[in-house]
Amino acid sequence: MVRPRRAGGRRSVIDWPARLLLAAVMITANVVGTAGTAAFALWVLPKGDLADPQRVLLVNLTVMFGYLAITIPLGMLWIGLWFRARVDDSRQERQLVLYGPLRVTLVLTVIWVAAAVLFGVVNASFSVRLGLAVAEDVLVGGITTCALCYLLAERILRRAVSRVLAGNPPAKGFKSSVLLRPVLFWMLGTGVPVCGLLVAGLGSMVYGDVPADQLGLVILAGCAVALGMGFLTTVGAARAVADPVRSVRLALQQVEQGDLDVSLPVYDRSELGQLQAGFNTMAAGLRERDRIRDLFGRQVGHDVASAATAASEVRLGGEVRRVAVLFVDLVGSTALAGARPPTEVVALLNQFFSVVVEVVEACGGWINKFEGDAALAVFGAPNDIDDPVSRALAAARQLAVRLEAEVPEVCAAIGVSAGDAVAGYIGNVRRYEYTVIGDPVNEAARLTELAKNVPGRVLAAGGALALASPAERGRWALGDAITLRGRTTPTRLASPLALAEPLPPEPMIGPEQCPELDSGPGQAPQRRDPEGAATP
Known about the structure:
Elements: E1 10-12, H1 16-43, H2 53-82, E2 84-86, H3 90-98, H4 100-124, H5 128-156, H6 158-165, H7 180-207, H8 212-256, H9 271-300, H10 302-310, E3 317-331, H11 333-339, H12 342-362, E4 366-371, E5 374-379, H13 388-406, E6 411-428, E7 431-437, H14 439-451, E8 458-461, H15 462-467, H16 470-473, E9 476-482, E10 491-496, E11 527-528, E12 534-535
Parallel strand pairs: 6-8
Antiparallel strand pairs: 1-2, 3-5, 3-6, 4-5, 6-7, 8-10, 9-10, 11-12
Helix pairs in contact: 1-2, 1-5, 2-4, 3-6, 4-5, 5-7, 5-8, 7-8, 8-9, 9-10, 12-13
C-alpha cells in the first residue's frame, strides 16, 4: 500500500516493500559493480613504474571503502527524496513514478562519475598514467552498472507504474520508444566496454609501457566483461520487451476461450504500454458488446438477436413462413389490478411470465412480445425448427399444467393456431421490431378469448391440429366449428384430452425437454425419421 497521506505534506509514491526491494537491489548491484571494477584495476590494469605499489593499493582500498560508506546512504536518501510528491498531486506522482528508473540511474551516474574523478586524481598523484587508467576503469564499470540498475529499477517499479497508469494509459506521443531501448542498452552494455578496450590499446601505443602479455590480459579481461555485461543488458532489455507482449498474448488466449473478464496491468510507458492499454480497451469493448447482445436478446429473443447480428444488413419487410402461434392471456386481470397493490401485481405478472418463457423456450419457441398481461409466442421463425406446430401444441398443454401448479393465484387462457404468416421487421429504419403478422396470429388471439369460458382454458385450431404429428394429434379432441369474432370462416375447435406433466425449467431445446412431442397418450415414445414419418 502507498503510505498514508498527510495534509499539507509530502508522501512517497511507492510503497514500503518496493522501496526496500529497490534499495537492496541497488546497493547489491553497485557493490558488485565496485568489486568487479576494483578487481579489474588490481589485476589487469598496467601499473607502470610505481615506487611503492603496496601503498598505492592501501590508499585505493581506503578511499574505496570510505567512498562507499558515504555515498551509499547519501544515494539512497537522495533517491528516496526524489520519490516524494505533494499530497493529492496526482500529476506529480505520475511523473515521478514514470521517470523513476531514470531518476535512480541519474543518481547512480553522478556517484560513479564523481568516483571516476576522485580515483583518477588520487592515482594521478602516484602516476598520471595510472590515474588515467583507473579513471577509465571506474567510468566503464559505472556505465555498465548503471545500465543494469536501470533495467532492475524498471522491473521493481512495475506495480507502481501500473497504478499511476490505471485508467490513464501513456499517450501516443510519450517519448519512450521500443526501438531505442535495445539499441541504448547494447551501447551501454557492450559498446562502452569495447570502447574501453580501444582506449586501453591506444594508451599502450602512446606510452609503450605495456608488455605483450599484459596487453593480452587486458584484452581478454575486457572482452569477457563486454560479453558478460552485454549479455546481461541484452537479456534485460529483451525481457522488458517480451514480458508485456507475452502478457498480451496470454490474455488474448483467454479472450479466444470466451473469458472476457480479463484486464492487463499497464506497467510500460512506451509503445508496449499503449499495446497493453489497447488490449484493455478492446476487452472492455467486447464485454460491453456482449452485455448489449445479452440485453438485446432478452428484449427481442435470442433467436431474433442472433439472426439480426449475423445479417450484414437488416431490411424492413418479411417473408412468408409456416409458423405456429401460441397466445396466453390472464383471466380477470382488471379485477386483479384493482384488488392488489401495483407492486404485488407486477411481482405476480413476473412470476406468471417466467413460467411462460421457460415452457415456450424449452419447446423451441420464443416470446415475440409481452402485451400487458398477455404474451405472444412464435414457433418456426426466425429460425427453422423441426415440427413447430407439434411443439406449440405440446407447449400449450404443459403451460396449462405448470401455471396451475406454480401460479395458482391467477387463471390464464391459451390459444394455438398455425399456418402461413409474414415474419420480418416492421416499423421505420430508425425504430423497428421483428414480428409475425398473419391470420394465425389473429386466430390464436380469438381462440384465447374463447378459451376463457371453457373448461381447461386451452383451445387450438383444427387447422393447426392437421399440421401436427400423429402423436401430438392423438392428445387432442376435435370439437364443433365456430366462427370467431372478426372472422368470416368457421374454425374447428380442439381441446387437449389430458394436460401434459410439467417439465423441469431447462433451457435446452429438443425432445428431451419436450417429451410429449413424439409420443401419444398411452403410447411408447416415437422418433421422427428425416421425412417426418413417425417410427416406433
